[in-house]
Amino acid sequence: STDPMVSGFATATKGQSGCDDPIVSYADSISLGKCPGTKRIIRIWTATDPNNALLKSNCVQLVELKDDSPPSFTSCPSNLTVYTNTTDCKATVSWSFPTATDDCAGAVTPVGSHTSGSVFPVGITKVVYVATDGCGNAAEHSFTITVLSNCCNKPPVINCPPDYLGCPVLQCGP
Question: Rounded to two decimals, what is the model's pTM?
């Protein structure tokens, strides 16, 4: 808030003992920032003698509403290890969608390199989610999906006994 109740009030005292208490007022010059809700206010405070408008003093207060902080992840998937579960020796993997929040913007929707329910090959795949607020501040969370093979996609291996040479009758010989 830019309200002086939040950002602070200027105070003033009499210029000298024979003067009345000054009247304090302010005027704002507002510049909008690069993202929603951000602004920079140059607030000029003026203390004026109530009996002589030429007796006054000024001070300048800078009031800024800005967001320099990245969002933070409030829930994140952890590393996952699964076995292949498709006929083509891959795995369909599901996880809970990560959530993120921002001090200024509230809830922020992360964007991921993969979506829950995607198909992954055997090996290790890094999944990255990025949460970006309206001011361009970003936070990243990553986890890995390790797919182990338990698939059957090769023919069986067979070992034959050695060739056999034998007689065509029960007894061979003279």
Answer: 0.66
